[in-house]
User: Fold these one by one.
Assistant:
Number 1:
Amino acid sequence: MKGKLDYVVFNQKITLFMSNSPRFSVSERPAQLQQALNEVGSWMLSKVSTTGWNELVLEAKPVGDSFFVRFTESYDERDVTGTSRLLDDEEFATEQLSRLQHASYDEAEGAWLSVTVVVAAKNWPTPEYQVGAAYNRTHEPQNWDGEGGFSARDVREHLEKFPRTDALPAWADAKINRGRSLNVADINDEESPNPYLRDALVQFSEERSERALVNVMRQLMGGDILLDATNSDFVADGDNPFGPETTVKYTFATLEGYRGLCLFSSPEAVLKSHQEQGREGEPVMVRENSVKVMMDFLNNQEIDLLVIDPGSPTMSVLERPQVQWVLGTPHNPAAKMALMGQNMQQLLSALAAPSTFLLLGTPAGSIDRQPLIIDGEAEEGRTLLTFTSAAEVSSLDPTLEVTSATSMDVLRFAVDSGVDSVRINGLNPYATLPIAQVKELVELVDAASLGIK
């Protein structure tokens, strides 16, 4: 998208009025609640292939029309907790969790803000199952893996859908009426919060192609991004000049009549934009998780575009369908973050966690439907290529067909297929694991699931 770029400033917090209301009558709720709980429990059982566990625990919290979920398998000796992920809008679990939220609604206390569903098992190897749930209607949902907490807008949307007669919890009232503290970054910090994104933007400026833009999106799947909050209405709180009563106002731009939220890859880019708008003094930067920013964008219909480094040679524009594509397909953000940080222990943990995914690329038209395996030099042997997101696959080869499976199932396939190594992502940052290391990880996870020390 090309066109004249005009800067405008809007208040970040926009109240949306929802037409939804709790969809079950008081008399219908008990039966609907039990049915939804049973369906969620059955879905949880379908997601685990191991035996010998005592409990399966699903934690869920709403975001827009979907839910963040985190899965834990509990054994005698240890708990195995996966990373959080956003359910697809059309997934079976999304509908059943929504049904569970509506069915558990109470006019006084409202609907749950987070839920913990537990499937308990006993009498292995022919277990008996029991399912139950705990509903949190008052406490602020936890931030698990940097996916971000409830915003003022999230609270407003929830209350429009599920009004309550009881007083609001103090934290929710504070978010609605007083905004939030800012994660202010240092303008004098010369480093980019995401050097890989910065490099991808430079490449995009040299080759403005769809493939180069996908490369930008894949690097947004990890790390942080900067926003310009200079025009916020700041209210100090003691020594903190950016206290919780601050009204946050980010910088937006209009491009061919479309409204775009301005994002920045470096302090230098923020400063140049600030100066081009004729502002004096130093800008106030806010540092946010880039995946959270993209998710907030999808949930805010008042914003049309994401504009990265506006007005600069590296400017790139992301439209809503592009962001929906990259977030709507299975992805493993924890593994991506580990690769960016060159943290092998974190990478292995992200692969071993239950309910996490890896993707495979299959050559188009392949008769045997086998995933891509690279034949390297003699000392390298054959390498199974895996990916942390669909954008990673498309950046390497847009003709590849994408399939996904749990991370451990992909690693088990690698061991069984006789390859010599497994590579996580085709382009930088990536890591190659010798098959002996992969086999050891699989054996450790399988032993833990069976309660073997």
Number 2:
Amino acid sequence: MNVITKKVSLPDGREISIETGKLAKQADGAVMLTMGNTMLLATVCAAKDAVPGTDFMPLQVEYREKYAAAGRFPGGFTKREGKASDEEILTCRLVDRALRPLFPSNYHAEVYVNVTLFSADGVDMPDALAGFAASAALAASDIPFDGPISEVRVARINGEFVINPTFEQLKEADMDLMVGATEENIMMVEGEMKEVSEQDLLEALKAAHEAIKPQCRVQKELMKELGTDVKREYCHEINDDELREDISKQCFQKCYDITKQGLDKHARAAAFEAVREEDKVSYLAAHAELSEDELSEKNALIDRYYHDVERDAMRRCVLDEGIRLDGRQTTDIRPIWCEASPLPGPHGSAIFTRGETQALATCTLGTKLDEKLVDGALERYYMKFLLHYNFPPFSTGEAKAQRGVGRREIGHGHLAWRGLKGQIPADYPYTVRIVSDVLESNGSSSMATTCAGTLALMDAGVPMANPVAGIAMGLIKNPGEDKYAVLSDILGDEDHLGDMDFKTTGTKNGLTATQMDIKCDGLSYEILEKALMQAKAGREHIMGEMMKTISEPRAELKPHVPRIEQIIIPKEFIGAVIGPGGKIIQQMQEDTQTTITIEEVDGVGKVQVSAPNRDAIDAAMAKIKAIVAIPEIGEVYHGTVRSVMPYGCFVEFLPGKDGLLHISEIDWKRLETVEEAGIKEGDPIDVKLIEIDPKTGKFKLSRRVLIEKPADYVERPARQRPERGERRDRGERRQRPERREVRNEAEGATSADVPSALDDMLK
């Protein structure tokens, strides 16, 4: 067994090791990555040949966390891991986006990357290690790959950048970024920030890249030692250089002219398709001797080569004339229109339209019971702010069925969620859900979701700290050419045919989230800085247009929004409010038609009461306040007679607190029985607390003090006790004998002697 281990250190001295040759040896490449007690197994397998007709990179990345890694059982009935969670899918995407651009463009064999968390200590965050593990598995294989890469998490904590922070450290961070890069270039960025500047983001990227470089170098050492620096040969494409050249000559200028016309999405697509079909017809006419199979093969090549011509024409038009596909200049933002509250039913709603991209967002306000439980292998917590993104096929004019939520929808929704979540107050009592339905799409629908989500939140009356806007930036940069163009508010085709998709969200104070994917080599920090500053100007323009629709959160919630009121109670009263088996709190909810939740936070009880109307909330609040109230002498209470006795009755004047209403305190007139006053068990009664026994804590109540005293009432004189006479002098006391002596004397005496013995003791 040829086991090879390589180690690399993080800036703070913590060590990461990668080991191959011991586990999963039948995979094309397998690596066990270890950091402390966190261990991930990454494997990669690739098909030997491509599926005929495949002209893309069929890469599939899977990341899974075993519950056993943290010594936990999965939830649910089956008690086993099922489909991937949202958090696992997000990690898959992070790894996929860093790997995919580095496979050769003509390599089309299916590649499957699996990363599994087998051990975790709850200290180190495994998602920051998944990209490193996946790339190391590729390095240990002979699969063609222009890497290696690695990924790290960089966080700014107390002004210092920390690489791969722990769970606890991350809680104090104002920046949280995942960065994927080769030794030379940054390939992928995603993260969230607390309104930081563009320069801060650049500094974080530089710190992350410096940490990634040694991780890439150690993978290169592994490749040389294994002999996998020479990759397998493949031939997945059949090419015809003469045909490629002919299509370029015939179609380039036509495509260039279409590019300059500034057509809308569908008109432009139809125009490009007409040029392609025309070329196919002319080729068929010139090569009538070809068989049907040969012609089908040539048509497939024409489609591929023509796509490259479209790409080249678009890029040259932008670089040479600064004209984009829709006729805009590089810094122009598409026309924007917005509408707040277009839907009467939701608690908040908004439409945001930018060019041919449109998002309809709704906002729903719920109670604590509506919070989402995230029950992962390493973390278990509740989410109070949810954002869901839907991308139906009709948004792009496609005629196909709408299925379940895909990875793309989860990823785009997560980006918008990150951009908005920091602006909702932490102590906001409502659970908030945004749903964004993309109705039209031609680029940057996740940023349209961010903008529409902001408007919907303000329409719902959510007190946002600051509104958030988002923009997607693009890049055109040909290899070996110094000229480049940064594009503001990119179209879908500019994303597809360009070199960068760089999304940023932010407020007037700074950035809140970002996502960047790079498809070219040699992206300098100068270009990144230009893109960031151009994005800032674009966001400010978009924000100005949004504020014309609604500039601040509505002062009042809409009438059909459930009202929520909070009260803080002492910790020791939590049990009293809940009651045995929840009996009291359930009864209160039934009686008042409210929803009541209670939890212990920071040593106190936080109670939330929700109801459609104020009266119901007030009724529930009165009951809760009565339970937690401390009885005060002199206060008047509305109680209930719990039992009747000959000497009075017991009254529950506060929940769980009974006091004695003595028969003499019922009325000013003398009563022989309680029934004479017409009082019976279950009757409501107003009483005043007049005394609390300092020794026993018992409560003494009075009813008569609340009744007007009769004019002829004569106070009964207090009973006089007879005066005590003078005490006779008993003389000097004799010393008392010991108890044991007395007992012995009594045991030795007969019954007849006992009186005399006692007399002697008392003398």
Number 3:
Amino acid sequence: MSFIRKNFLQACDVPKDLQSVVSFDAQREVAPGQLGLAQGNVDAIWQQTLKLYKTGIHPAISISVRHKGELILSRSVGHISGNGPKDTVHTKKTLVTPDSPFCIFSSSKAVTALLMHMLAEEGLVNVMDPVAFYTPEFAKHGKQNITIHQILAHRGGIPGLPANATVDTLWDEEEIWRLLCDAKPIITDGSQLAYHAITGGFVLEQVVKKVTGSSITEYIDKKIRQPMAMKFFSYGIDGQHLHELAMHYHTGFRPGLLTGKFIKRALGETLPNVEKACNDPRFQEAVIPSGNLVATADEMSAFFQMLLDKGAYNGKSICKAQTVARTIQEYGNRGLDRTLLIPMRYSAGMMLGDDPVGIWGPQSRHAYGHLGLANKLCWADPSRELAVAVLNSGLPLLGLHIPPLLNLIRTICNNIPVLGSPQTFSLQA
């Protein structure tokens, strides 16, 4: 059975005694009864998390759930290394804990988007301005009118890197900027929705550098990481902490011809090459604003809790309430994403939920967040006073994990009830 799991399902070994690979600190979690929930509500979410783990598709899972500003679930299961599909019983295994950092891939976009709106709050940019106002070299090939807002909302017309770009380009800042400046856009008026998997973040990084005189890592450190007292929460990870970072594994069914083309279209690479790249120290220590923020699950749920609290965190003002409102405000109508090939609602930086069911579960129209490589889930739902981060280490597209993953989102929503519609933001309020 282990041979079938590893070679046909590309899954990791799952121990019979799950408690041997579970880690949590009960002192972190607030009793659900204090928040109007039953213990059974929290238990249901955790049991569904374990069902996801038992598929073997994610060697490590870390989940953090906050309700009404309190942490009700902060747990992990599995190994950050040593239990991938190609590992053996002799491979050294390291348990995951709630303090383990993960690369959150495209969930990084939500954080980068807030940084851009914080620049606007400081008067350093206007997101409706063309990118070329700040970086004139970007104007080549008709891109002079593409705005920061269009880049944030995946309507910037440059959804992918050139077909001949190699993975090594991702950690070559000068080369990637040259390629983006030389790129010919598919549109320039923002009329077409096409997910920008990796390109948009590099464009926004250059704007940050031009208007602040600092790197984007220095800006996030000053504006978010230090004020929120986070250990990680930055693009890439310092070399001294590499051993703490969760490894990522290509798991699940091997893509066929059509699914392989879809992955190549969306990510610019095959999943085996993505696995190789994201476990490369050059990627892990690089700065890739659309795709390699490193954080723990608790750090990500804290970030979204701060957004729920209108920019406040532990008595500190991280940003203004109107900055949060502008980050999560829907842009355009629900439309077919020409990269992902599914209907989506976006703000200038966030993937939005929907009714009767959306990406963040049932009755989630007010929810906002961002997926990371289709499996990492980071979102907030103001109608439920809910902030969630589900981080994991598998890199599947198709596999046995899909029903349990969707059921996990549904279970969270069903056990954290809608409390009412959030108040519409107003400058006069």
Number 4:
Amino acid sequence: MKLLFLIIACYVIYKLFSSSKPKVKVHPKKTKSKAVVTKQSSQVYSSHKSIEEDDDDLATFTISYGYEEEKSNNKKPGKWISENETVEINGKVLSKGNFYYGGVLKALDTDSSYFSNQETEASLVDDSLKIEAANYLFTDDSLGYWPKYITLSPKARGAYIDWLFSSRSDPETSIGYVFIYFYGIERRITVDAAKNEVDDTEYNALFNEVLRLKSAYSENRSFSNYASRLLELMCLVRPQAVSLPLEDYSSTNNSLLFRFNLANSVAKGEPISPDIALAWIRYYPEYSLRTPARRCNDKFAQLFKAKYIEKYDEGFVVKPNKTKLDIQYWPASNTIRGVTIDQEELPDPSMLKGPTKKLITIADACTDELEAYSRYLGKKNTSSNDIAAILLLPDRLINENTSPVIKNFKLWANAAIQNDAGLVSVSDFWEQTGTALPEKINKKEVELIQNLSKKIGFGIAPDSRYHHAKPSPEGKLVLFSEGHGEYFEPSKAYNEIGMALRLGAMVANIDSHLDENELNVLHQLINHDTKISPTEKRSLHAYLTWRLNSPANMNGLKARLEKLDSKAKSVVSHILISVALADGKIDPSEIKQLEKLYVALGLNKSLVTSDIHHITSSKSSTLTPKEQPEIKEKAGFTLDEELLALHESETSDVQSMLGAIFVEEELPQVEEVKPQAPKHVDNGLDTPHNSLYNELTAKEQWARKEVIELCQTLGLMVDGAIETINDWSFDIVDAPVLDDDDDIYVDLEIVEELKG
């Protein structure tokens, strides 16, 4: 009797432990073969129902296994149905395979108590089991955490069969059905292919099928990660058959291909390539990319590689370390074994701190440069194609190949320079930006004009920084090649000539007709001055063109001219009359306008006639008979000679006078009203959202599962809560404070701004 009780007690204990699914970690065995099927690990990664769990951490939660396996009377061995093979299921002929079909196909590793009730391959389609017709969108609890065809309800089986008959691409499909299908492909690769039962043609076709599935169901992070890792395994096992671009590597920090490629480069003594360096900083677990690097992923990659090449040329070399590379593949299916690919001849440098410190320095610099660009894109209703976004990019990232706006603008600007000396209307310029012409040109608009021109390699006139003037919405602009450059600092002579050009243009336009001689005189004033650089000359030529094509005015000029001493006023009056005489004649209307300018200078208007006579008489006396023009004796006068003489004057006050007037011309500034941050961060947030926000600001990065748990305690839905907090942040500082990218990231710089 005691023996009977002992047997019963042992049976009860056995059933309790075998049904409770204890948390164990079974490490795969290592062998020296290249690709070895090993014992299935109990490590659990992301849920097939998109439970928010990091793929690199051990799971410590209870899992639902769905229904018990139904007993099947089908004794036909399960076989693989190839891609183009036909099979009859439930009275219908299916012409598209890629799954196991039959009645008997055992799960692997059934000797482990952890998998003691997993008798049948999860993906095996057994049409002898009861099937009820259902649309593939149908789902019920029989799917469980690790779905299996044999444990599905009859109606769920019908739904899965319906999905097999479909395009197998509808993203609305329950991901459990997709995983069942994926399990079959996974077994075909890790089991059958390891036995050389899969040729390269089929291997390539299965690779493309997984790629297709990953694209179709990319919204499910769990499936996307598993698909990426299987693709990586396939590349490692048969590199001659398939390959994968870097952008399709696994998003987790345990990318198989990255670790292999890094190890291979180090073992060969090769420089770390920009691509591998970028992957290293992304996969390094002790470094977390900040918001700009994640939000602007492509731009960050471009900038990082450019800076890396700039600093290290072909790349730095890493000395091989003693730790050996150990690559393990953990399958999504719990009915097949894991795979270890031993590479005992390769080191594992992925965790080395020395090289990663160099990469972190570059990554931080790139992130800082993308901060403004990222903030803009974080706003609602913005696009990377917006001209405002483009202008916030680092200069080295802006070219016609990356932006259609830049490409079209360059074509338009080059045509304007070639055909119209760069002269364009402000409205035409604004049309190229894709935005509406503003009613006024204020500081913001002025900066847009300047920055856009600079970004594409052109200069603009007027440029408020150097020409001390601004255009009007109905006015003109002048574009010129090469522009002012990065470190342009106008000289004293530049400012002197700039003022002379403004005054000269005022006189030249008095009669509403620009004579060619007058134009030549003003351009010669620029060309003949040896004290200014080629860049300054290009800038002044453009400024002159703009002045000659813009209405003349005395804005900001009259008051400063009145303050000049008598000697300086004489110089200015000399310039005005010299320009008026450049065409060889002077009309009564010109005299009348000159008199007005004399009054503005605080001079007696009666001096105009006497100054004209004085200048023409003194100039004509120096001319030989051959030099005398046929029109009148005063027609041979050239302004550049007079002004060059001015520059050579011993009187320094007179030399600098014009430059001083030019620089002092100021633009009217429009005061920008900045939104005031509230004194308390909870303004505008209700109590639950404010509590969540305060919890999240404790650290920069949160596992999504942690945030879900916080939201549950507060009665909030995670997606809605993140949106609410970000909307509140937008209202205050015009930028989001939370970034949802698998994990939840908190922008601590924005947090500080929100504190006011």
